[in-house]
Specification:
This protein is α+β, with helices and mostly antiparallel strands. The chain has two domains: about 90 residues; about 240 residues, Bira Bifunctional Protein, Domain 2 (BirA Bifunctional Protein, domain 2, 2-Layer Sandwich). The chain is about 40% helix and about 20% strand. The protein contains eleven helices and ten strands. The strands form two sheets. The protein has a seven-stranded mixed β-sheet, with helices on both faces. A three-stranded antiparallel β-sheet has the order 2-4-3. β7 and β8 form a beta hairpin. α1 packs parallel to α4, α2 packs antiparallel against α4 and α5 crosses α10. The longest helix is centred in the N-terminal third of the chain and has 36 residues. The relative contact order is 0.10. The structure holds zinc ion. Zinc ion binds next to loops.
Length: about 350
């Protein structure tokens, strides 16, 4: 081999290797390039192998050049490999580029609180029967919470309402403000401002100073209902509440009314539905009676009508009150009312 030939070969190889390396745009093509120059039968490898047949002077000259080219090609190969990997990771959405084929991030989804759900469900049943939703203050005057509902001072019924009083004194040194113990004050407030016919439902928080247990909370929700017009009878009460029970607890429900006492109604009743768990034969849910009490109701006491300026000789009405948490507990099989305010996501996520 002539002296010039070996050197020209190395030079020509270097030029073509560098331009092919530039054109290699994937790791696969990079590997093909490496094999064709530096593999076992690669062009550069063959030049290095042929050194043994050269004269010592030629070997030193061509060998030196070939080894320098080999080092240069290996370094360029490494750089090219990094560049291709960077381009690929950009292409897969790491940095500025966006890959529409990647699956999306799951969005955490909120939901309505079970109390909110059941309140809305109950209200919508009454709204469909022509009742209007009204709301009132949670900090209430004693007058609306008690006096106007036929519970005068010193009435024994007040003992049943373990009242939380607000620390506020009027000019007589009395403390007439409280956290409402029920939603019934809205009956008095609404009748005072509106002439019959009246058909309202009023949801909201109520408060009682009580020890908490599985069925008692010091803060709870109530829904109050009131209908006042000429000629409203007990049959209207029964029909309305029967329809409500069927819509919430199922078409087949039976209802039972029994006498009960509330100062603001006369007569007063409690309303039960037949136990949907055992079908009436008696179980733990219904304490073996076959019936489950779901609310209190009655014909509005004439004194309550008169206190709000409604003529009880012309108008009659019925009223009812229920605890939505109790309705939800029955409907969804929840066994502890404290779960509603515990903010436990394991509970809340089930609704
Ligand atoms: Zn039962």
């Amino acid at each position: 081999m002539a002296e010039g030939t070996g050197a020209a070969q190395v030079e020509e190889l270097m030029a073509s290797a560098m331009s092919e390396l530039e054109a290699a745009d994937s790791l696969d093509r990079l590997e093909e390039w490496r094999v064709s120059y530096m593999g076992r039968r690669g062009r550069l490898t063959q030049i290095l192998r042929s050194l043994g047949g050269m004269s010592p002077e030629e070997r030193r000259f061509v060998g030196g050049a070939a080894n320098r080219v080999k080092a240069l090609l290996e370094e360029s190969l490494g750089q090219r490999e990094q560049a291709i990997k960077r381009a690929q990771s950009r292409g897969s959405g790491d940095q500025d580029a966006f890959d529409v084929t990647l699956p999306g991030w799951p969005m955490p989804q909120g939901g309505l609180h079970p109390t909110t759900r059941i309140v809305r469900e109950i209200l919508s049943v009454f709204q469909s029967m022509g009742f209007q939703v009204v709301e009132g203050p949670e900090v209430e005057w004693e007058r609306y919470n008690f006096e106007m509902l036929n519970i005068p001072k010193d009435h024994p019924a007040r003992d049943a309402f373990n009242t939380l009083w607000v620390d506020y004194e009027d000019e007589n040194g009395d403390k007439p403000m409280l956290l409402r113990t029920h939603t019934s004050p809205m009956q008095a407030r609404y009748m005072e401002q509106t002439k019959p016919p009246i058909r309202i439902v009023s949801p909201g928080n109520s408060y009682r100073y009580e020890a908490t247990d599985a069925t008692h909370e010091w803060q709870f929700t109530q829904i109050e209902g009131l209908a006042v017009d000429r000629g409203v009878t007990f049959a209207n009460l029964k029909g309305t509440l029967f329809e409500f029970a069927r819509r919430i607890f199922g078409e087949d429900r039976q209802v039972r009314f029994r006498c009960d006492f509330f100062p603001f109604v006369e007569p007063g009743v409690d309303m039960s539905i037949d136990c949907f768990s055992c079908g009436g034969s008696g179980c733990r849910l219904c304490s073996g009676t076959g019936w489950i009490e779901i609310m209190g109701a009655g014909m509005v006491h004439p004194k309550v009508l008169e206190a709000a300026g409604v003529d009880s000789y012309i108008y009659t009405g019925f009223a009812f009150g229920m605890g939505p948490e109790r309705i939800a507990m029955l409907k969804y099989g929840i066994d502890d009312i404290r779960l509603f305010h515990a903010n436990d996501l394991r509970f809340l996520k089930q609704f």
